[in-house]
């Protein structure tokens, strides 16, 4: 009866944290913001299912397809990353139980996960939420294998690695750190277990369709990595990368540090030392490669499990009061982070009170410069405005069947496709995966063209030679939007074959 009471109590506490997590996601984005530019691309991928894409593997497109079946509303777009965040917390909860943790350890771990950077990561519909879940579950499966030596956990780890790979190639860095860590410790015996190699075959079978897709498309992932290194990672500072690691779990950093210590001083955890070295190797690799800070977030949740159990062991008898203090500290430290890490304030309010954001480096964009708003926030503005203005021009064109909406980037194309009242508007761009989705089976006679503010051909001299009428009809006027100043042009009655011109440009812009 005592066991049943204890189990029921733990279940109630878990559901409390699940409801808190979902509840927080209902209030962390102010109504002035639209969806994020990346979210539109991922949602459109659900309309073009494939075993791979230029920027990401296929897993996200499967979720997008489900969202599409459910009505494609913003509710479902926000629900799924929140769900993946909840599942990450549940895995940490189960890890704490597997390590022998009781109610305090469970509450400490759940609090640490809830009030952390995961709330920010789970705010947006991107592959990152599933990436963190995959890392956490893979580590959990290895933990269970070390504890029980049951081979089924190798198969679970193989599945987590396979589907993690199909979600984001980032999970390869987990393996790059884990393999040498296992070799360095007594757990190297795992490599003489024949079942490990059967599990590896399972992973290969899971990821094989994507590998074939990459091969048949000349490995666009390599092109994407080169582009990323050239345009974004070049602006990453290694010291800033390490500073960000401290901010991600600021309130619960003491729990993570306790986990590191526990591997060497707590007898029950010494057999898990491979986790510590895996962290060292993977973080060192990320630092050397000048990775973005958030790439490493998947490392931390499993250490929250270890740290929570170890602190429960330490905080007994005369130190039991520290249990209450530790919970309060995490909640208190999260309050100032909450003020700046989420778009809970209007853009104008943030711009007028930007000093706190600037001190934390939150105003620095991928171009290495400071702006008025954090980049993610600016990427959530101006999209409905753009779609509305494009719709207004599209409505005036009688020959809609032969009209193409051509954008400068994937954010513009995806946002128009998402918000437009014309569900078959089919906006495209030479950018990202849209290059494969051009509707060239019908003759194109009219074009609605969207160009960025930095475009150097304001008069559209090139297009004037191809169309009878070229006119500027509007611009994005939200000054806080990253797309501020993007122009909308209407090109009517083509004089030449637009299809042939587009085919030529597609071949020039296609990845090699």
Description:
By secondary structure, this protein is mainly alpha-helical. It is 59% helix and 6% strand. The chain contains 23 helices and 5 strands. It has helices at 2-25, 37-45, 59-69, 74-98, 103-114, 117-121, 128-148, 152-167, 172-184, 194-216, 220-231, 238-248, 253-265, 273-288, 301-314, 321-341, 347-352, 355-359, 375-378, 383-396, 410-419, 461-464, 498-509; strands at residues 403-407, 428-429, 446-451, 467-475, 487-494. Strands 2-1-3-5-4 form a 5-stranded mixed sheet. Strand 1 (403-407), helix 21 (410-419) and strand 2 (428-429) form a beta-alpha-beta unit. The longest helix has 25 residues, at 74-98.
Q: How large is the radius of gyration?
A: 25 Å
The helix content is 55-70%
**Structural class of the helix and strand makeup?**
mainly alpha
Please describe the biggest sheet, giving its number of strands, its sense, and whether it closes into a barrel: 5 strands, mixed
Termini separation (Å)? 66 Å
| Beta-strand residue percentage | 5-15%
Number of helices: 23
> What is the molecular shape?
globular
| Overall pLDDT confidence | 92
Number of strands: 5
Uncertain parts: none
Order of helices and strands: HHHHHHHHHHHHHHHHHHHHEHEEHEEH
Write the layout of secondary structure elements.
Blueprint: H1 2-25, H2 37-45, H3 59-69, H4 74-98, H5 103-114, H6 117-121, H7 128-148, H8 152-167, H9 172-184, H10 194-216, H11 220-231, H12 238-248, H13 253-265, H14 273-288, H15 301-314, H16 321-341, H17 347-352, H18 355-359, H19 375-378, H20 383-396, E1 403-407, H21 410-419, E2 428-429, E3 446-451, H22 461-464, E4 467-475, E5 487-494, H23 498-509
Parallel strand pairs: 1-2, 1-3
Antiparallel strand pairs: 3-5, 4-5
Helix pairs in contact: 1-4, 1-5, 2-3, 2-21, 4-5, 4-7, 4-15, 5-15, 5-16, 7-8, 8-10, 9-14, 13-15, 20-21
């Amino acid at each position: 009866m005592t066991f049943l009471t204890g189990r029921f109590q733990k279940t109630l506490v878990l559901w409390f944290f699940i409801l808190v997590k979902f509840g927080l996601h209902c209030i962390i984005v102010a109504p002035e913001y639209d969806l994020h530019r990346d979210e539109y691309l991922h949602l459109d991928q659900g309309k073009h299912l494939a075993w791979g894409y230029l920027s990401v593997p296929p897993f996200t497109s499967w979720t997008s397809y489900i969202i599409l079946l459910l009505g494609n509303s913003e509710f479902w777009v926000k629900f799924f990353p929140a769900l993946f965040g909840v599942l990450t917390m549940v895995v940490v909860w189960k890890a704490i139980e597997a390590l022998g943790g009781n109610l305090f350890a469970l509450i400490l771990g759940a609090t640490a996960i809830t009030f952390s950077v995961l709330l920010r990561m789970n705010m947006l519909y991107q592959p990152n939420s599933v990436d963190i879940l995959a890392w956490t579950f893979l580590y959990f499966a290895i933990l269970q294998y070390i504890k029980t030596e049951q081979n089924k956990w190798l198969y679970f780890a193989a599945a987590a690695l396979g589907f993690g790979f199909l979600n984001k190639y980032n999970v390869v860095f987990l393996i790059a750190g884990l393999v040498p860590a296992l070799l360095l410790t007594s757990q190297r015996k795992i490599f003489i277990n024949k079942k490990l190699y059967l599990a590896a075959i399972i992973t290969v079978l899971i990821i094989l369709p994507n590998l074939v897709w990459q091969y048949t498309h000349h490995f666009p992932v390599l092109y994407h990595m080169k582009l990323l290194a050239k345009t974004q990672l070049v602006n990453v500072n290694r010291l800033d990368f390490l500073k960000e690691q401290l901010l991600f779990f600021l309130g619960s950093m003491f729990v993570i540090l306790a986990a590191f210590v526990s591997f060497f001083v707590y007898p029950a955890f010494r057999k898990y030392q491979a986790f510590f070295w895996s962290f060292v190797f993977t973080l060192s690799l990320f630092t050397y490669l000048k990775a973005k800070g958030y790439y490493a977030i998947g490392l931390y949740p499993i250490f929250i499990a270890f740290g929570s159990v170890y602190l429960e062991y330490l905080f007994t008898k005369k130190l039991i009061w520290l249990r209450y203090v530790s919970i309060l500290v995490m909640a208190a430290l999260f309050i100032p982070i909450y003020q700046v890490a989420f778009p809970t304030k209007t853009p104008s309010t943030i711009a007028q009170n930007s000093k706190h954001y600037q001190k934390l480096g939150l105003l620095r964009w991928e171009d290495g410069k400071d702006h008025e708003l954090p980049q993610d926030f600016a990427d959530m503005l101006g999209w409905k405005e753009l779609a509305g203005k494009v719709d207004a021009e599209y409505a005036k064109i009688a020959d809609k069947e032969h009209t193409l909406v051509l954008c400068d980037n994937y954010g513009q194309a995806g946002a128009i496709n998402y918000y437009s009242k014309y569900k078959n508007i089919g906006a495209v761009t030479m950018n990202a995966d849209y290059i494969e989705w051009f509707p060239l089976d019908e003759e194109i006679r009219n074009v609605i063209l969207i160009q960025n503010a930095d475009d150097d051909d304001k008069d559209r001299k090139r297009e004037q030679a191809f169309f009878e009428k070229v006119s500027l009809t509007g611009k994005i006027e939200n000054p806080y939007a990253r797309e501020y100043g993007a122009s909308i042009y209407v090109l009517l009655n083509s004089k030449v074959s637009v299809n042939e011109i587009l085919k030529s440009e597609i071949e020039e812009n296609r990845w090699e």
